[in-house]
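Self-study notes.
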Amino acid sequence: MHKIEFIKIGRGTLLIVLFLLFLLPPLSWAENPEYTEPMMPWWDVDSYAESAEVTIKLEKSIPRNGDSSDNADQGTLSSSKDSVTYEDLDDPFAGDSKDLPILSDPFEGYNRWMFDVNETMYSNMMEPVARAYRDTVHENIRIGIRNLFSNAMAPVKIFSSLLQLDFEKTGRIIARTLINTTFGFGGMVDVAGEEYEIDSVNEDLGQALGSFGVPTGPYVVLPFFGPSTARDIVGRAAGTFMSPTFYFGPSTGVSMGITGEETVNDLSFIIDDKKQLEDSALDEYESVRDFYHQYRHGLVKK
């Protein structure tokens, strides 16, 4: 009898504790009525779903739970006792969304179909390969391979920056290429950035066309390559003829193999981010389209 009463008392106590815990969040909120915009993942769509403007806002250096070792390009946001709101974070494209032109999508029917085709190929082939590759190849080696490909695209970057008469960027690209090729094992080690603090440059011919006022044109989803625009297709095609693999590849098969390695290596860094997008987006097609448009617009304005 005493055991049964003890069990009943224990259950009652447990229910009271759970009830108090349930009330604590509302009570603490009530004590601090001043509204502070919450921290959000940079792929969050829910709070912007009803907006007619671009719904994707890219945040740099947002701390995440779990292992972030694969996000090598992202900075680290040090912890602070002061609360940091979403608007306090450094947005690499801050201000660019105000003059963001409207992106036309006249081929939406085809684009959605091709998007689904690419997603099917990604889920069934690319993602398993990229995950196995990430789990097998050490992160430092993957970063080195990525640096190597970036260093090899120096001719495209130099030509693009020269077309824009941006001699500061041109000088940085030349300096980085010479230093990293000479002292960084052909470009695998970013000596210029780590030792001399010469920042990398992201330039291509699509950005050069955009700097001259060439409109983006309609949005197009390419087989395998994914989101693009008419302007970026022209820039990509022109850049292909300046790629080292186009001239120095022993054969078409070798060139395709090199391109495949670059693609898998790049995917190994963003697998988890893409998964987060798939889980959070109300319409993944629109999320990718709007993010790509804002991202490319930001690069042109930089």
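Second protein, same conventions, sequence then structure:
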Amino acid sequence: MNCKTVTIASCAGEIPGAPRTPYAPLNPSSWHQAPSSSRARIASDPFRNARLAILAVPAGTAGHGCGCIDMMTRFCDREQEQGKAPAAPRTMALITAGVQPKNPPPVPPNKPTGPVMADHGHRPVTGRETTMQAIVQDRYGSADVLELADIGQPVPAGNEVLIQIQAAGLHRGDWHVMTGLPYLIRVVVPALGLRKPKSPVLGMDVAGRVEAVGSKVTRFQPGDAVFGWCDGSFAEYACAGEDHFTPKPANLSFEQAAAVPISGFAALQGVRDQGEVQAGQKVLVIGAAGAVGSFGVQLAKAFGAEVTGVGSTTQVELVRSIGADDVIDYTREDVTDGARHWDVILDTAGRRPLSQLRRALTPKGTLVIVGGEGAGRWLGGFTRNLRAPLLSRFVGQRLRMLASKPRQEDLQTLRELIEAGKLTPLIARTYPLGEVPEAIRQLEAGHTRGKIVIAV
């Protein structure tokens, strides 16, 4: 970095005429990427216990000095966390040898100039871009269009919160966004473009810690453990309004919490709002071992219903373990043969024709269709979803399509149910961030037992 420490003094005072240069946080790996000689100087005992560090760099290389200051700060923070250095205020000063800057940027004492950063207090924000790793795509297609890349880290503004992501949930909607299929969703989903995605980063479910908050945020502070939803959760950091998050349930890990939001919204709104499930009713959940279906079984039980779950042979015991009163192996029994009837059917499998599903309903029963797969590239399985409300006008049964929406009040409800022990997320498998393409291929294969989670 071509810079060296020329003075380290255990003095709290300022040095007249020494300009102070604000710095931007670098990628955490910058410490390891620095030359060993620079790291040795920064790790020296005199610097560890100093309150004032002065760096001299040749004129025109102030950017390198800023980077070195950032490494110094990170090292000192780490030393304090490990108890190797006193938790005393430190001042970093940068002096350029030769020509001094004409108008050094002022840094008012004790006044924040940017968002509050976790573990670092108020950090000034400059034009330097801080990068992060994320799964990105520049076109629609199979999992082959995804790649792990370094992109700019978002900065929270106003009522936004920056989350350092610990885990992200993968759901079927991520596949639709990745492929842009069926073509209908490119028109009806504002976040998608007609020819290519408007947002290059996939993912919505998220759990992590607050890294920084905007100036108008009142509910959170750096370090808080939260879960919720946002755009672009398959990354190291993501930014969204504070109303997208709520404190993480203490009885869940970050991986478990990341499995909740999007699938939980669909199940809660399907069972409570569309199905209007009441105590004593008989409820059938098709796809009961999946992410939405497993929540559907537990929520229907929480509302006092008698629940029958449908799954494959290998899923029978799992479905029974989450509270189903009865479990049907669809490879051995046809639940739509008309021999049995239910007051409410929550169909999360997305393929059975309406005529078959209606045979399993009571004359005044309610069918709730969650999602839809197959049936072509233009409308996909949504043809069934579109036909259901129309047909419902002419029959005694209520045939409803679910279009779930993320809502803060529903996130709070899910949190309360989890903390009360009435709702437990099922995790099928956890993949690291770099293996998101493989995770999506597993999702495509089907027959998952719960939710696939990405550990960041």
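Instructor comment on the second fold: Residues 131-260+433-455 form a domain with the Quinone Oxidoreductase; Chain A, domain 1 fold (CATH 3.90.180.10).
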